[in-house]
Write a structure and sequence with these properties.
The chain is α/β, with parallel strands linked by helices. The chain has 2 domains: 5-234, NAD(P)-binding Rossmann-like Domain (Rossmann fold), CATH 3.40.50; 260-338, TATA-Binding Protein. The chain has helices spanning 8-12, 17-26, 36-48, 74-78, 83-94, 112-116, 129-142, 170-173, 186-189, 193-212, 282-289, 327-338; strands at residues 28-32, 52-57, 99-104, 121-124, 145-152, 155-161, 221-225, 230-234, 260-263, 269-273, 294-297, 302-306, 309-313, 319-322. The protein has an 8-stranded mixed sheet with strand order 3-2-1-4-5-6-7-8, sandwiched between helices. Strands 9-10-14-13-12-11 form a 6-stranded antiparallel sheet, covered by helices on one side. Helix 7 links the parallel strand 4 and strand 5. Helix 3 runs parallel beside helix 5 and helix 3 (36-48) crosses helix 10 (193-212). The longest helix is centred in the middle third of the chain and has 20 residues, at 193-212. It starts with 7 loop residues before the first helix and ends with a helix. 41% of the residues are buried.
Length: 340
């Protein structure tokens, strides 16, 4: 109990107690996406004393994030800090007794197994269904429990994926990945911060129950809307022919990873990942681009704004192209300004 004075009120709660707090202190959690949901999840689990947190995000902090992403400040925006780095800084200042690992990267089939292979639980703070389908496959393969969460406008949902023989996985709930444009996004209909706080808090509470071995872990899909005053628990049946949790087929996880582009939810941006990843020479590129516009370089990224073109380039060659009308335009900007 030495050093646990900060958790006194939590330990007093009979659902956790000293044994539950010990389990939390020994637990390892990976949070994929440190945005509206991920910052609240990370903040809750950090302050609850979860012993190890790995926070992963591909983007940096922008002013529009501050409305709902509670770990970030205007100073983070001014310093162009990656979200994972800024989150780790603030979390460490809240609880220096736990281990926090920040990862600035895009989660994809080439790295997700490395990111989740040594943790007890995966938390979904992502903003797209492809990442969630990939999380579902990787967690099923390694039998790691994970908690889905999603929000848009004033509504949201969460579901525990418990990896037990009789429980459904995410593909049982959503058999096919939605086509582009089939669902509204934060970019098209917006999002308000009360719903992100509520859904992420449900996720964090379920995580604490799972990690402490408590009774009452939810086995339903929870959907709610704070503007329309709606909430419902939906029972999800296990699909006896599910391609993932029954047949063990991992189409996304087993697919080769090459150069690809992805539209970013809530942003008028495209992410471009070059094939084979290559180191970006910030200094050389900054010299070349300085005559074309404004260039800002930090150890984490390079930002360029000029002549109707804006992008952020990361050390591994990954880039966020802002304002591109489609994938073709984003790839053209990457090739012309950064290199083919």
């Amino acid at each position: 109990m030495a050093g646990w004075e900060r958790y006194k009120r939590q330990i007093t709660f009979e659902g956790i107690g000293e044994e539950g707090q010990r389990k939390l202190s020994e637990a390892r959690v990976c949070i994929i996406g440190v945005g509206a949901l991920g910052t609240i999840i990370a903040n809750s689990l950090c302050r609850a004393g979860v012993g190890f947190l790995r926070v992963i995000d591909r983007d940096h902090v922008e002013e529009t994030n501050l409305q709902r992403q509670i770990l970030f400040t205007e100073r983070d925006v001014a310093e162009c800090l990656p979200k994972a780095v800024a989150a780790a800084n603030h979390l460490s200042s809240a609880n220096s007794s736990i281990t926090i690992e920040s990862v600035v990267d895009d989660v994809n089939a080439s790295n997700i197994e490395r990111f989740i292979g040594d943790v007890d639980l995966v938390m979904d703070g992502s903003d797209n269904f492809e990442t969630r389908f990939l999380i579902n496959e990787a967690c099923d393969k390694h039998k790691i429990q994970w908690i889905y969460g999603g929000v848009v406008a004033s509504g949201g949902a969460t579901m525990n994926v418990l990896m037990e023989d009789d429980t459904p996985c995410f593909r049982c709930f959503m058999p096919e990945m939605p086509e582009a444009g089939a669902y509204p996004t934060c970019n098209t209909v917006g999002v308000i911060n009360p719903i992100t706080g509520i859904v992420a808090s449900y996720q964090a509470a379920e995580a604490m129950k799972i990690l402490t071995g408590a009774d009452g872990v939810s086995r339903h899909y929870l959907a709610l809307d704070v503007w329309e005053n709606i909430s419902s628990y939906i029972e999800v049946e296990k699909n006896p022919d599910c391609p993932v949790c029954v047949r063990g087929e991992y189409a996304l996880l087993d697919s080769p990873v090459a150069s690809y582009a992805a539209s970013l939810c809530g942003q008028d941006s495209w992410q471009i990942i070059p094939e084979g990843r290559r180191s970006a020479d910030f200094d050389a590129l900054a010299d070349r681009l300085a005559r074309l516009g404004e260039v800002k370089v930090t150890k984490f990224l390079m930002r360029f704004d000029g002549d109707g073109v804006s992008f952020r380039l990361f050390p591994d060659g990954r880039a966020m192209i802002d304002g591109a009308e489609d994938e073709s335009a984003a790839r053209r900007i990457y090739a012309e300004y950064i290199g083919a």
